């Protein structure tokens, strides 16, 4: 429900946005650079698609299962200059949501994933000096995240989050791909109809020294009792609920990850990194087949995908872009308690 007039709401929102821009300017003059496109993609992935702020109301009403375990399997295929590249990724995530006080809530989660890439026997997929084995080996992805949220009133809430991640190739160490980040997020709900969460995150980098400042956030709009439009990373998702058990999804987003490559043995370049940027467009079907259990299947096209290897100065060493749209599929199994 609304707790203030539309004029007051508009004034508060304008002040918040002005303060957000002022904070970015202050950080920039203090030696913290504004985010590049790649930094923003990484930050969105690390911060998570659904800020805790938009889950608080369900926690308060005790309708939201406090513990979630998720297993996910993804498979992608693409043609890169005549080379069939197949990527498979397996990941597991555990998260617990908990009340601290009547208006103060928290969330602790951890995630691990491993990505394997098949280059169809082409060791020369990347033209990089000094690399005679496969272009890259298995890629590891670890994350630990803590989020807190304080509910100010029926409309406003304030969130703080901190997380650490490590993404690295086989042969590189855990610390090579490690970085830390923190964020402050302010959320506003327009009753049960819509909500927005926006804020700023500051993070270190896995290759060069220094830090970057990134905008983070999410929004949703309940179009009617069946359809919900929301942001999904740097993209949009339309969810349609057809029954208490069946929901479908239509989405498109721009996403990316970055891994620290091995330079301890047969390295590509000193402190090199691999970037994987893509635009998946897909459909999903979710089935609540038992109480507390969810199964989701996804299928779609990868409209754009590029692999890029950079050195410690972020200079491009080699780049490969898909010749045509690829395909992807995925299965997700979740248990909620």
Summarize the topology.
Layout (H helix, E strand, L loop, with lengths): L5 H24 L3 E2 L2 H11 L8 H5 L6 E14 L2 E17 L4 E15 L20 E13 L4 E14 L8 E13 L3 E11 L6 E12 L4 E5 L2 E8 L4 E15 L12 E18 L2 E18 L5 E6 L4 E11 L1
Parallel strand pairs: 1-9
Antiparallel strand pairs: 2-3, 2-16, 3-4, 4-5, 5-6, 6-7, 7-8, 8-9, 9-10, 10-11, 11-12, 12-13, 13-14, 14-15, 14-16
Protein architecture, described:
- This protein is mostly beta strands and 337 residues long.
- Helices cover 12% and strands 57% of the residues.
- The protein contains three helices and 16 strands.
- The protein has a 14-stranded antiparallel beta barrel.
- Strand 10 and strand 11 (234-241) form a beta hairpin.
- The longest helix has 24 residues, at 6-29.
- The radius of gyration is 21 Å and the shape is globular.
- The relative contact order is 0.16.
- The model is unreliable at 1-6 and 20-36 (pLDDT under 50).
- Please count the helical segments: 3
**Per DSSP, what share of the residues sits in E-state strands of 2 or more residues?**
over 45%
Q: What are the secondary-structure elements, in order, as H or E?
A: HEHHEEEEEEEEEEEEEEE
Task: Please give the order of strands in the largest beta sheet.
Answer: 2-3-4-5-6-7-8-9-10-11-12-13-14-16
- Low-pLDDT residue spans: 1-6, 20-36
> How many strand elements?
16
Main β-sheet description? 14 strands, antiparallel, barrel
Name the average pLDDT: 79
Principal-axes shape call: globular
Report the helical percentage. 10-25%
Radius of gyration: 21 Å
Distance between the termini: 29 Å
């Amino acid at each position: 429900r609304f707790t203030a007039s539309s004029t007051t709401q508009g004034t508060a929102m304008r002040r918040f946005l002005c303060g957000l821009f002022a904070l970015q300017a202050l950080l920039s003059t203090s030696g913290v650079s504004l985010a590049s496109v790649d930094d923003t993609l990484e930050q969105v992935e690390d911060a998570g698609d659904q800020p805790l702020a938009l889950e608080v109301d369900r926690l308060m009403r005790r309708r939201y299962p406090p513990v979630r375990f998720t297993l996910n399997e993804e498979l992608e295929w693409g043609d890169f200059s005549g080379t069939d590249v197949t990527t498979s990724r397996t990941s597991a995530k555990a998260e617990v949501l908990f009340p601290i006080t009547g208006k103060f809530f928290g969330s602790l989660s951890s995630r691990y994933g491993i990505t394997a890439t098949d280059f169809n026997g082409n060791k020369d997929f990347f033209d990089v000096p000094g690399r005679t084995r496969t272009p890259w080996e298995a890629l590891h992805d670890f994350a630990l995240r803590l989020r807190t949220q304080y509910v100010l009133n029926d409309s406003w809430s304030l969130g703080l989050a901190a997380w650490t991640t490590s993404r690295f190739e086989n042969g590189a160490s855990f610390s090579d791909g490690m970085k830390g980040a923190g964020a402050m997020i302010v959320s506003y709900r327009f009753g049960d109809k819509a909500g927005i969460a926006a804020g700023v995150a500051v993070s270190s980098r896995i290759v060069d020294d220094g830090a970057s400042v990134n905008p983070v956030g999410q929004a949703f709009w309940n179009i009617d009792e069946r359809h919900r439009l929301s942001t999904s990373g740097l993209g949009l998702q339309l969810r349609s609920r057809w029954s208490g058990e069946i929901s479908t999804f239509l989405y498109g987003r721009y996403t990316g990850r970055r891994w620290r490559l091995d330079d301890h043995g047969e390295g590509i370049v000193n402190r090199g990194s691999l970037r994987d940027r893509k635009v998946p467009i897909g459909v999903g079907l979710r089935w609540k087949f038992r109480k507390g259990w969810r199964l989701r299947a996804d299928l779609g096209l990868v409209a754009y995908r590029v692999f890029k290897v950079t050195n410690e100065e972020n200079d491009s060493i080699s780049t490969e872009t898909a010749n045509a749209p690829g395909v992807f599929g995925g299965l997700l199994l979740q248990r909620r308690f």
